[in-house]
Amino acid sequence: QVQLQESGPGLVKPSETLFLTCTVSGYSISSSYYWGWVRQPPGEGLEWIATIYHGGSAYYKASLKSRVTISEDVSKNQLSLNLRSVTAADTAVYYCVRGDALAIASFWGQGILVTVSS
Amino acid sequence: EIVLTQSPGTLSLSPGERATLSCRASQSGNGKYLAWYQQKPGQTPRLLIYDASTRAPGIPDRISGSWSGTDFTLTISRLEPEDFAVYYCQQYGTSSGNTFGQGTKLEIK
User: Fold this and answer.
1) Which 3 state secondary structure label does DSSP give A20?
2) Is the confidence at residue A5, as pLDDT, over 90?
3) What is the pLDDT of residues B6-50, one digit of tens each?
4) What is the per-residue DSSP string for B7-30?
């Protein structure tokens, strides 16, 4: 049974960089599927952030592209998200997801709440 | 970027009734690549429908999706107590514009 576990800081200061990791167990991220990140501000809706496919193809939400990098570490079977110059608007639960197609989320991690505040 | 508009914002129905949720795309960008998710309070979203009308594994057949042009519909034929939740549609499959709708809350009347 595949499991996705997000990890990272729960609190980040404005203008700093948020770095999140998703550790995948039960499946090798290099085998197949699209892997990505979706976020949800408290009490609000869902927002797709980025997706990566093994081999390096990365896709980003247009409005976030200048601040976001998604990457994979096959040796650790991990997915990472790097979000630069954060503001309060980046406060959200960040979900690691797996999909059968680009940006679809067939399987979700439990999510991690990240608060941007000084 | 395609904008997905869901309606109604809130739908109040009773168990046993039929629910019809709408998701309209601002343009016909990505064909049938639309998904529906269900999210209950305090839980992670769950994929219900993909490719506009294909049920995800384990989803009961009283839940169905359809589409015509830029209009997508999620139908729950007979509401069960566990169906009351928030539903999101999502266009996927594009390099940068994989947007979600704002959600429809299905509540018990």
Assistant:
1) strand
2) yes
3) 999 999 999 999 999 999 999 886 778 999 999 999 999 999 999
4) E-SEEEE-TTS-EEEEEEESS--S
Q: Which positions in chain A touch B33 (Cβ < 8 Å)? A: 101
Q: How far is A112 from A65, CA to CA, in rounded Å? A: 21
Phi-psi region of A111 (alpha: psi -120 to 50; beta: other; left: phi over 0): left
> Which residues in B lie closer than 8 A to residue A60 (C-beta atoms)?
96
Q: How far is B72 from chain A (nearest CA, A)?
A: 16
C-alpha to C-alpha distance for A46 and B87, rounded to whole angstroms: 11
Output the pLDDT for position A14.
98
What is the distance, to the nearest Å, from the Cα of residue A67 to the centroid of all Cα atoms in its chain? 13
% of chain A residues with pLDDT over 90: 89
The arithmetic mean of pLDDT across residues A7-24, rounded, is 97
Strand, coil or helix: B90: strand
Whether the Cβ atoms of residue A46 and residue A57 lie closer than 8 Å to each other: no
> Hey, is B72 helix, strand or coil?
strand
Amino acid at B67: W
Name the amino acid, one letter, at A84.
R
Closest CA to B94 of A101, A88, A23: A101
Give the residue from chain B lying closest to A108, CA to CA. B44
Nearest CA in chain B to A36: B98
Taking the C-alpha atoms of residue B34 and residue A95, their distance in angstroms, rounded to an integer, is 20
Say yes or no for a CB contact (<8 Å) between B90 and A104: yes
